[in-house]
Structure formats: structure tokens, C-alpha cells
Amino acid sequence: MSKLIVSLSPHAHGNDTVERNMYGVIIALLPALLVSFLYFGLGSAIVCATSVAACIFFEWAINTYILKNERNTVLDGSAALTGLLLGMNLPSNLPVWIIIIGALFAIGVAKMSFGGLGQNIFNPALVGRAALLVAFPAQMTTWPKVGEMGYLDAETGATPLSVMKSAIKSGDVTVLDQLPDSMALLLGNHPDGAGALGEICALALLLGLAFMLWRKIITWHIPVSIIGTVFVVSALLHLANPIYADPFAVILSGGLMLGAIFMATDYVTSPMTPKGQLIYGVCIGLLTIIIRNWGAYPEGMSFAILIMNAFTPLINNYVKPKRFGEVPATK
Amino acid sequence: MNIRTFRIGGIHPEENKLTHEVATKVAALPKQAIFPLSQHIGAPAKPVVAKGDKVKVGTMIAEAGGFVSAPIFSSVSGTVFKIDTAIDATGYRKPVIIINVEGDEWEESIDRSDKLEQVKDHPELTPEEIVNRIKAAGVVGMGGACFPTFIKLTPPPTAKAECVIINAVECEPYITADYRLMMEHADEILVGLELLMKGAKVTTGYIGIETNKPAAIDLLTKKAGEKFGGTEFHVEVVPLAQRYPQGGEKQLVDAVIRRQVPAPPAIPVNVGAIVQNVGTAFAVYEAVMKRKPLFERYTTVTGKKLANPGNFLVRMGTPMKDLIEACGGMPEGDNKLLAGGPMMGKALTSTEVPICKGTNSVTILSDEDARRKEPQPCIRCAKCVGACPMGLEPYLLAKISEVKNWGRAEQEDIVSCIECGSCQFTCPAHRPLLDNIRQGKSTVMGIIRNRNAKK
Amino acid sequence: MNFILIAVIVLGAIGLIAALVLYAASKKFAVYEDPRIAQVNALLPGANCGGCGFPGCGGMADALVKGADTGSLDGLLCPVGGADTMGKVADLLGMAIANGEPKVAVVRCNGTCEHRPKIAEYAGLRTCAAMHACGAGETACGFGCLGCGDCVAACKFDAIHMNAETGLPEVDEDKCTACGACTKACPRGIIELRKKGPKGRRVYVSCVNKDKGAVSMKACKASCIGCGKCEKECPFGAIAVTANCSYIDPEKCRLCRKCVTVCPTKAIHDVNFPTPAPAPKPKEPATPKAETGTPVAAKADAKKTEPAKAEGKEAQA
């Protein structure tokens, strides 16, 4: 009889694995990816493919040659996911070499230099996007219009967020008439509208959210708290002064949906308790509104998330889950 | 039916109740019975027999070794072979009494008839008499923890018992011993419950059963209604949602009476509940009504690759290999032998380990089930936090224990951990969370004990 | 000119007031520090390595003075400064050092992969503490080394390493400072701090198995079976067998090595001797180790280097 195997309990394990979660998020992104092919054609395909390939390559290379890890984690899906998310944040006419630099930043600086999977403080895709925005502001702020199927020759236009920004700056309510209506923002089929690959069709992103909730990859706390906060605050602002766009337009435009559903919910950089996640989401919502309305950039989501990423360890330290049998302190 | 459950955390492991409908068989007597002296929480028992002594079934072979202790009775008749050491469920060699089995002669004091005794027919059964008979019979918690039952029935003066809750949940996968006991001895269990209520001086009783045992729920509801309807006892059969660890004592109290037991050193009786396993209730009936000490129990022997898994009424002291042989023998290939279920059972290095008072199951996991996967780095998904039924943060406790920061571990309530394994079950990165937490918990408990001793 | 004068006066006044405030604060909020702490600190090496277990030499000086006040410097050792520094500190504080003998960590287990067959496969967290909690380990000996290296991880001086062949840890006696970290880390109490001995020679029983002889032999071929031959043989009464396991008292042992000769399982080891212990007399009964030829001959190689390696190799035949 062969030797018996021993270990301490538990001796059973559920079906969940890291791969299942990472590839699950990638599947959740597929509707948005398909929509982006629909609206941006060749450009979208090139940007996404380059981003994913570059991220996977850099993770493999750094793991093998610099960190010299025995186990290469490149196939667990997290590098591919970072690549896809980075791609969704970029305009469809971004040159390949810029994308590669972005991937190097995302994987090399934001993820591997902190120690690899599970150790980074900031969301790698957002760090990549922020780095590119600062390094290549011109290329990163010219957005191809929806329906432009080419790559480098796509015609660019104003995004809904830049329209909202100019309304606030100029104080002129009529500027907001240029905004597509909410249905168009939801479905993404607004002509002359523009934006990053993942920012056009909110419906596709919401489908992804439904899929992730069903598969229990994420919980509702972060997306709902972010979108809810943004909605409520922008509604109040809109009521106070109509130069601020109506709340539906605000939540459906720009990177809000993408950020709330896919970027802020990143496991490694978000808080570990439901209460903490709600606090995190509310703060991101507030920061987004502040930056969007009164900051220099038309889009505030990425910076809001990055700022709150820095607060996540603090939130983890002080916000504890409700203990079983917690006796309320009466003293 | 309003399905109640506990409020924090929990997981849903695969049930694998392979032996649900397998009627209990009486296990064959072993050739040699091995009785570890420590089959309960507390001081080990002290032998009162010597090599060469003749014993019968039911003879006391070891007396209680202290207040928190219990006597051990022979489950076989024969001659004491030796008092030696042997491997028990802890994995270490511990003192045992080994008896060579000859025949099956029982002590005359044991009532072997099938007559169902009722409490009302026995006016001599005052609460004190009930507790004394339970103590004398060596009855301990049969759910696996083996805490001496007579102590639970006499709570400290700071706590007042309000009800008795029977734990018939059996939330662990594979185990069906309690279910078979309920289906085959429901009447005796209800008399046992009455004895427990009388012994604890309460009139309210609950029986918690998971919804995956509908036949047991129906049977006990009907019988409890017939037996306790119109009496001073209020007994309710409470169906509970199928969730692990529903059978954990604190989770059961939370589900049944909606009260959460505070952190240790608080125990369920501090919120008024005395929890007893359904097997203990049956043992109480036999001890008090039939003067039969605790020496046999229902045990499930199961595993996906076992030829004939089954439920057995087995004499304690029977080596596990006898039961495994009766089920078709150890399967080929990689195997893990567990005393208990897959979530909280103890892995054993030998099939010679005997069945003890708390062995509710012998589970054999084979092939991929027997091995752990390679751990990956923590991805901070917080699924362990969601799974923990005690509201703790397993990823944090495991890390703190790994770096040996005992002060922080105590701050983060590591002593509240019930070691259920839900966190490690859930972790997508297959990290050995509970291995580390257990280490931290035992070290911190030692530190607290030393600190209190110095005061 | 007036402005310069005003500026000078104003700044001078501010400076004076600030100085008075600082002086008052330094007097009112002064923390009394025992002057001995500074003196002891001056004697310490000043490396702030933390090897003593305290935060830097300042923390160690503090602990030493506190220890002097309670009457004992036990447990306080500066590994970098060694006995020399501790002697000077003790003189300063007016204390006597209890034991000036240099000590070394000794691993008391013979359970190499060869002597001690595996009976189970451990598939859990690979630390000695976890394996110890799981059960006896992968072998039938519940007292022996588990081989996961908690001792190696605890050592700050790179003085103990696992030997992959034997599966046991080996102590480098040149690097070992006898700080006791490995002793505390071992969940089974196998590692002991014993006197290094004159010229580094020492004799010890390399087993802590408390099972009866027949049981421990089944688990490990080189275990102590508690037969008591060593106890009878020792002319100095240095050996006592308790709970089926022999122990040599380092205070009484005179390094005559008669016990090494008579031990039937070769559980007693002698370290750093230039010549092997005398072979057993011919009328000794055939022991299970007899077929290993002249196991003592291999010890001739053991000079002042890896002592434990010799113990592992000696039984190979």
C-alpha cells in the first residue's frame, strides 16, 4: 500500500482558482471589446492586440531574466487582463510604439517592480494610462470619432466629457446641446461622438458587470458606490446650476463605467472589506466629479482611482469587518 | 418553512453524502481493541485495570483524571493485554489500554432490552441524578469536540441556561452518521433531549437540522409534536439552510435563537444556549435509561473510491482498518485517511488508529482529492474575508502569524477563529491560510494563558 | 543704520527668548536616564545589528542595566562582541557572569533519511511548526527532526543549514554564537546549547526519542533505545536514562568516550576527536549496527569542520 498523505485540515477545496477569476474578467470585457471593433474597426484591433501582447511579453521577460522566478506567472491571466484594460483606455489611433511604452510602464513599473502579482499598490493599467497621458499629452487627448474604422488616419473629435468641460468653463448652457442623448451614450452609437475604446458603449460594460456578479468574481459594493455617488452628486450640481450636465449623461460618458466596473474593482488595489469598499467607492466618485468639473482634465476617473489606491492600505487598517458576536462598547 | 441560517460568511462545499440511504450495520468485533486514555477534552483518564485483568462489555477500565475529564469503559469482553502507547488521532503515540477480545459478555447492570423508557416513568430522575448518571457513564460530546457533557449541563453561576439546542446539522461533506441515527432512533433521541432539558433545568429545546435531510426533519417534527405537545416542554425542530459551517456551535446558536456568542472566553451558555450533538443526546438516553456507559457509536466509513461505503454501529477501540476492510479495503493509488470529514478532519498516518468517542466518520480521499495544489501569491481578492463565519480577515491573520507578530495577531482577534477551514477552501490561490492561522492562534492562546497565570 | 540696529536687537531678543524657552523645557521635561546605560553602550560594539534581540546597542544597554538591577544577566548576550564584551560589561555593572564557557548549538537527532524510513507523505505547509501540529511527521518517530528548516530560518548568523542528503540540520561551529534562536524555533526541542568543550571536543546523545526501545528501533535504526549500557559504563556518573532516553550531563562528562563504544545503536556521538573511540570489545553481542563494518573509522576524517556531517556519514555502509 502506498504511503498515506497527510496535512492539516481543511482537506477539501472549492473550484475557484486565480485563472478562473482573471479569465472571467477578460470574458466580461468581451462585449465591450466586440463593440469597440464594431465602432473603431482596425484601430481597435491593433491597439488591443498590441497592448495585450506587449504586457504578456514584458511580464514573461521580467519574470525570467530580471526576477529569475522559478514559477512564471505569465499564464495566470493577470498580464493579459492588464493589457486588455490598458488597451480599452487608449484612443484607437495611438501608434504602436507608444502602446508598448505604456505596457512597459504598466507591467514593469506598476506591477513587477513592486513584487509581481498581489503586491502592487496602484492599478497597473491606470498607471500605464496616466504615464502615457503625461508623456504624450497630444496623442492621448485626440480621440477618434465613433465609426472611424481606420487606424492612424481616423478622424478625431470632441468627447462628451470635453463638451461638458467647455460648458462649465464658458458658463454657457447651450454648449451641452452638443451632447448625445442618454440612449446614444448607453448604446454608443452617437455619430460624431468620440472616446477611448472602452468608453463608448455603457451597455456592453454593464453586461460585463452582470456576468462578473453572476460568477461571483466581484461584489456589487464598488461599482454601485462609485456610480451612485457620481449620480447623486452630479444630480445635485445639475439642479443647482444647469451648466453642469444631467446625471445620466455624466454616468454614461467617459471612463466612469469602465473605471467603476473594471478598474476600481481590481482585487489587488481595492480594500478587503465591504464597508471599506463602500468608503473607497464614495471617495472615488467624489474625486471624479471634482476633477471632471473643476480640475484641468476633462476625465477624472483614472486619477481618482489612482489617488484612492494610495488610501487602500489605510482603509484596510482601520475598517474592520463586523466581528461575530461583537459586543458594542458600552463604556 | 422559514429557513434560518447564521448571519456572517459561510461556504457551500460539495455534499458527497454517499451513504445517506445506507442502513446502519453492526460492525464486527475486533480481535484487539485499543483504548486511548485521552478521548476527551481535559485530563487523560487514569487506568484502573492491569495486564491480565478480565473485563466485560461496560466495565470501567479508566477513571476520570480530573474534574474536566471522563471515564473510559471497555466496549469488548476479554483480557487486558497491556497498557502501552499507540498512535491515536493526534498522530502521536499516546498511552492506551489494549484488550484482547474474547466473546461478547456484557455487564449485568446494562439494560439490553429494546423497551423505550420514558422520563415520566422514572421519578428518581432528578436533574442532579441525571447529571450524575451522565458523568458516571463517561458521556462526552459526540460531534467530535468530546467535551464532557456533565460539565456543559452545569453552567457557571455567571451564566443562565435558557434552552437546549440539539446539533443534528451534520454540515460536513460525506458524514451521514447523525442522519442515520435520527432515522433509526428518533424516539430515543427525543427522550435524550428531554433528559438534557431536565438536567439543565430548562423547558425549551430546539433541534437544528439542515434542509438536505428532509426525511429527518419530517420524522422528528412529527414525533416531537406527538411527544412534547401539551407538556411543559416547548420543543421546535428548526430546518436550517445548507451551508458550512452551520454545525459550528456558535453559528448554530446564531441561526436558531438569533444570538451571537461573544469572543472567547465566552461560550454558548453565556447567551443561554446549551448545544449538544444528536449523538450525545442518544448516548445520554442510553446512559441514564439503560445504564449503558459510552462505548459504541455510529460512524460513517466513506470515500469516493471505496467499494462499499456505509454507516456502522461500531464498538470504540475497533481499529479503523477493520472497518475499511468491511467496506472493500483501501483503494489503490494516492489516499488520505481522515478521522472526521474533509473540512475539519484529522489526516492519519496509519490505519491502526482506533475508533474513539469523537470519531464520527472515517473518510478516504483519493487521487486529486488527496493532494493540495501549489500555492500562488495572494491576489487580495478578499474572498476569504467574505467566507469567514466569524467576521475575521484570514489573509491578514495568516500573514501576521507567518511573520510571528503575536501582538498584532491578538489585536486582530485571532483567538475567535473556529478553525473551520472556510477561508482555505475559498482561496483561489490555494494558500495554506489555516495552517498559518492555527499556528498563530495556539501561540497567542499560550501567551494569554501565561499572562493570566502570572496575574 | 537704525534699521540694522533694530533688526539686530529684535533678532537677538528672539534668540535669547528661544534659548530661555529651550532651557526651561529641557529642565522641566527632562527624562532621567541612568548614566550606566551610556557607559554600557560605550562598551558595546556599536553595530546596531539586533543580534541580541534588542533594537540596537542602545536597547541592549538598557536591557543590561535593567538586568543588573534585577540581579541577573541571564539570557543577555551580544553575539558580535562575544564573551569578551560581556565580561567587560559585567565588570562595569558589578555582576559576575554565571558561565564563561563558550557554547554551541547541538542537533540531537540521528534520524537521517537512511536511518528513519518515511511512512507517510506530508502535503501541507512546509514548516516544522505546521508539521509538528499535524502529527508525528513523515516518519514513525514523533520526537525527531522534521527537516523543514525552521531552525535555519531562525538563525541570523548563517550558522545552521539543512544537509540535503541526510535531511538533518548541521551547525557550523565557527559561526554559531549560541544565541539560542534555533533552540527556540525547533518545536521538538531537539537542538540544545552545550559547552563547546576543550579543543571543541564534546560527547552527546544524538537522540531525544522517549518511546520504548522496540518502538523507537522500528522507527529509526540509530535511535536511543534506553538500554542503559552507557549509564552503567560511565565512570563519572554523567549519564542518566530517563523515559527511555539517555542524556549526558555536559558538566560531569570527562570525554572518556566509553559510552560511545558501548552504545549498541551508535546513538552517542563524539565530536572533534583526532582518533576514533575504541572499538567495542569482541564479546559484545552482535548489534544491529555491527554490519556497518568499522563505523568509527569514518570519524577519523572529522576534524574541526562540519561535525554533524561526520555523524551522518558514519553510519553509512
Report on the architecture of this protein.
The complex is a heterotrimer of chains A (331), B (455) and C (317). Chain A has helices spanning 18-67, 78-88, 96-109, 124-135, 137-140, 160-170, 182-187, 202-214, 221-240, 247-252, 256-263, 274-294, 301-318; strands spanning 4-6, 143-144, 156-157. With 331 residues, chain A is mainly alpha-helical. Chain A folds into two domains: 18-139, no CATH class; 159-193 and 201-317, no CATH class. Chain A has a two-stranded antiparallel ribbon with strand order 2-3. In chain A, helix 1 (18-67) crosses helix 2, helix 2 (78-88) packs parallel to helix 4 and helix 8 (202-214) runs parallel beside helix 11. Chain A starts with a strand and ends in a 13-residue tail after the last helix. The model of chain A has no long low-confidence stretch (mean pLDDT 88). Chain B has 455 residues and is of the alpha/beta class. Chain B folds into two domains: 1-21 and 107-371, Rossmann fold, CATH 3.40.50.11540; 383-454, no CATH class. Helices cover 28% and strands 19% of the residues of chain B. Chain B is built from 13 helices and 17 strands. In chain B, a hairpin with an 8-residue loop joins strand 5 (60-63) and strand 6 (72-73). In chain B, helix 1 (127-136) packs across helix 4 (186-200), helix 4 (186-200) packs across helix 7 and helix 10 (394-402) crosses helix 13. The longest helix of chain B has 22 residues, at 433-454. The N and C termini of chain B lie far apart (51 Å). With 317 residues, chain C is α+β, with helices and mostly antiparallel strands. Chain C has two domains: 35-93, 3-methyladenine DNA Glycosylase II, Chain A, domain 3, CATH 1.10.15; 103-314, no CATH class. Chain C contains eleven helices and nine strands. Chain C has a two-stranded antiparallel ribbon with strand order 1-5. Strand 1 (4-6) of chain A pairs parallel with strand 2 of chain C, so a sheet runs across the interface.
